[in-house]
Write a structure and sequence with these properties.
The chain is of the alpha+beta class. 31% of the residues lie in helices and 29% in strands. It has twelve helices and 15 strands. The longest helix is centred in the first third of the chain and has 20 residues. Bound molecules: 2-acetamido-2-deoxy-beta-D-glucopyranose (NAG) (6 copies). It comes from Chiloscyllium punctatum. Keywords: Glycoprotein, Membrane, Secreted, Signal, Transmembrane, Transmembrane helix.
C-alpha cells in the first residue's frame, strides 16, 4: 500500500535508529550511507498578501551563454507524460483522494540525475520519460530546467509561484564540487550543512524550520525523526497561491451533499457562481470538463465524470487527452451555474516503490551509481517523500465588488455541480507544465 499519511513518512524515516537495527541491517547501514531525498510541496487557492519578491532573472546571461532560447518543449512534454503515468500508478494503489505535484518530483529527480552515472542514470531518465539522452540532450535538459525555474519565478504579479531546491549535507562529508556547482547553476539549489550524525534532533528541528519557512507555514512538522546515517538530503518545494480570475461570492456558499459512492454521502461547503466558462463535454469519456482560470498564467482544469465513470476517465488520461482538452476549451465558452466544493487536502507519499515500478530501481539499492555526488562512498537513496497540500476556497478577502457583475440570462443556464468524485489538474500555461494533479473522492477525508 501507498504511504498516505504523515505517520507513514515518520515510519519511513523513523525507527531506523541504529539501536533497533538487526546486525545484518546494521552492517548494511554502515556499508551504505544513506541519502534521503525529499520532496515538499504546497498549493493553495486562497488570496495572498501582496508582497512582491524581487527577482533576478538572468535571461540575458542565459542567452549569451547558450546562443539560443530553448522553448522548453523537451522537458514540458516529458513532464506531462510523467505526470499522467505517476497519477495512474498512484491511482492503482489507493481508492481515496490523490494530490501531488509531478513538476516538483520531476525537478528533484532531474537535479539528482546530475549525480548519477551509468545504468542508474539511464533508468532515471527513462522514468522521467526522457528518451535517448545523449550528453548534449542532458545539457539541454539542465538548461531547460534553469529557464523553467526562472520563468516560474518571474510570475509574481498576480499569482504566487515559488519553486526551489536545497541540499542539506552532513558536516564534513565530501560532496564533489562539480555536483554542487551544477546544482546551484541549473537548479538554483541552496546548500546547507547539518550534523545528522552527531545531533539528529537538532538537524530535524532545523529541517522542519526550513520546510516551514519555504511553505509559508503550511507544512510545520515534516519530520518526526531523522536517520543518523543521512549524508545528504535534497528538498524541492513548490508553493502556489492563485486568485481565481472569477472569484466566488462567499454569501452563496452552502452546505450540500457530496456523493462519495453509491452508499455514502458526506456534507461539503459548496461554492457557487453563474458565469461564462470555458467548458466542453467529452462524450467518449462521459465527462464534463471546465477550465477555471487563476489570475496570471495558471488554470485549473476540472473533469467531472458521470456517475461510475471515474475509472474509465482515469484509464484514458494521457498527454494527448490533456492537449485535446486544452485546445478545445479555448474555443468553447458558455454560461453555466457552477457548483464547486470548498476543500482542503493534505497528502503524503513515499514514492520509492512507485518509482521502482516506473523503472527507477537501482537508485534505491546497492547497485546505485551516485558517483557524481561522491567518489569515496557507496550511496543510495532511501526514499522519495512527497507532501502536498491543497486549499480551495472562494478566495475573497477582497471587497465584495471584486466578485463582479453576474449577468443572469432570462432562461436558466445549465448547472455543473462537482458533487461527486472528480479529477483536477493545475497547470502553468506559459511554460505548459502541469503543477499539480489530484482526485477528490471523499472531501471528508
Ligand atoms: C495495478 O497494480 C497491479 C499490481 O502491481 C498490476 O498487476 C496492474 O497491472 C496495475 N494496473 C494498472 C492499471 O496499472
Ligand atoms: C559508476 O559509473 C561510472 C561511469 O560510468 C563508472 O566509472 C564507475 O565505475 C561506476 N561506479 C560504480 C560503483 O558502479
Ligand atoms: C565550481 O565553481 C567555482 C566557482 O564558481 C569554480 O572556482 C570551480 O572551479 C568550480 N568547480 C568545478 C569542479 O566545476
Ligand atoms: C463508500 O465510501 C465509504 C466511505 O469512504 C466506504 O466506507 C464504503 O466502503 C464505500 N462503499 C463502496 C461500495 O465503495
Ligand atoms: C503571462 O505570460 C506572458 C507571456 O506569455 C507574460 O508576458 C506575462 O507577464 C505573464 N503574466 C503574468 C501575470 O505573469
Ligand atoms: C475513448 C477511449 O479512449 N476509450 C478507452 C479508454 O480506456 C479503455 C481501457 O484502457 C479503452 O478500452 C477505451 O477504448
Amino acid at each position: 500500500m501507498l504511504d498516505l499519511t504523515q505517520t507513514a513518512i515518520a515510519q519511513e524515516f523513523g525507527p531506523e535508529t541504529i539501536g533497533v537495527l538487526k546486525t545484518r541491517e546494521l552492517i548494511e547501514a554502515m556499508l551504505r550511507p544513506v541519502i534521503l531525498l525529499l520532496v515538499v510541496t504546497l498549493v493553495t487557492g486562497t488570496v495572498f498578501s501582496a508582497t512582491k519578491k524581487k527577482q533576478h532573472v538572468n535571461h540575458e546571461e542565459d542567452l549569451q551563454n547558450h546562443g539560443q532560447e530553448s522553448d522548453l518543449a523537451m522537458i514540458s512534454s516529458a513532464n506531462t507524460d510523467f505526470a499522467f503515468q505517476l497519477y495512474k500508478e498512484i491511482a492503482n494503489q489507493t481508492t481515496s483522494n490523490i494530490f501531488f505535484s509531478p513538476l516538483s518530483i520531476s525537478t528533484a529527480l532531474a537535479l539528482l540525475s546530475l549525480g548519477t552515472r551509468s545504468v542508474t542514470r539511464e533508468q532515471l531518465f527513462k522514468g522521467l520519460h526522457l528518451d535517448s539522452m545523449t550528453e548534449e540532450k542532458i545539457a539541454e535538459m539542465n538548461r531547460d530546467y534553469k529557464q523553467l525555474l526562472q520563468s516560474l519565478m518571474a510570475e509574481q504579479n498576480e499569482l504566487q509561484l515559488l519553486m526551489g531546491n536545497s541540499l542539506h549535507i552532513q558536516k564534513g562529508y565530501d560532496v564533489l564540487p562539480s555536483f554542487l556547482n551544477e546544482s546551484k547553476k541549473f537548479y538554483n539549489a541552496e546548500v546547507f550543512s547539518l550534523d545528522f550524525n552527531r545531533d539528529p534532533e537538532n538537524a530535524r528541528l532545523q529541517l522542519n524550520d526550513y520546510v516551514k519557512k519555504m511553505t509559508k507555514g503550511k507544512i510545520k512538522n515534516m519530520f518526526d525523526t531523522i536517520d543518523r546515517s543521512t549524508k545528504l538530503m535534497l528538498i524541492n518545494y513548490i508553493f502556489f497561491k492563485g486568485k481565481w480570475k472569477n472569484p466566488f461570492d462567499p454569501a452563496q456558499t452552502r452546505e450540500t451533499l457530496f456523493k462519495v459512492n453509491k452508499t455514502t454521502d458526506v456534507t461539503v461547503q459548496m461554492m457557487r457562481q453563474t458565469n461564462r466558462f470555458s467548458m466542453i463535454s467529452d462524450y467518449n469519456l462521459f465527462s464534463n470538463v471546465i477550465k477555471l482560470p487563476y489570475l496570471g498564467n495558471a488554470s485549473m482544469i476540472a473533469i467531472l465524470p458521470a456517475d461510475g465513470k471515474l475509472e474509465h476517465v482515469e484509464q484514458n488520461l494521457s498527454h494527448e487527452k490533456f492537449d485535446e482538452w486544452v485546445q478545445q476549451l479555448a474555443h468553447h465558452k458558455q454560461q453555466c451555474i457552477l457548483q464547486f466544493p470548498k476543500v482542503s487536502l493534505s497528502l503524503s507519499y513515499g514514492l520509492k516503490d512507485i518509482l521502482a515500478k516506473m523503472g527507477v530501481r537501482d537508485l534505491f539499492t546497492s547497485a546505485a551509481n551516485l558517483s557524481g555526488i561522491s567518489e569515496s562512498e557507496n550511496l543510495k537513496v532511501s526514499q522519495v517523500s512527497h507532501k502536498a497540500v491543497l486549499d480551495i476556497d472562494e478566495k475573497s478577502t477582497e471587497a465584495a465588488g471584486a466578485t463582479g457583475v453576474e449577468i443572469i440570462p432570462m432562461s436558466l443556464p445549465p448547472t455543473l455541480a462537482f458533487n461527486r468524485p472528480f479529477i483536477l489538474i493545475i497547470y502553468e500555461e506559459n511554460t505548459n507544465n502541469i503543477l499539480f494533479v489530484g482526485r477528490l473522492k471523499d472531501p471528508s477525508k
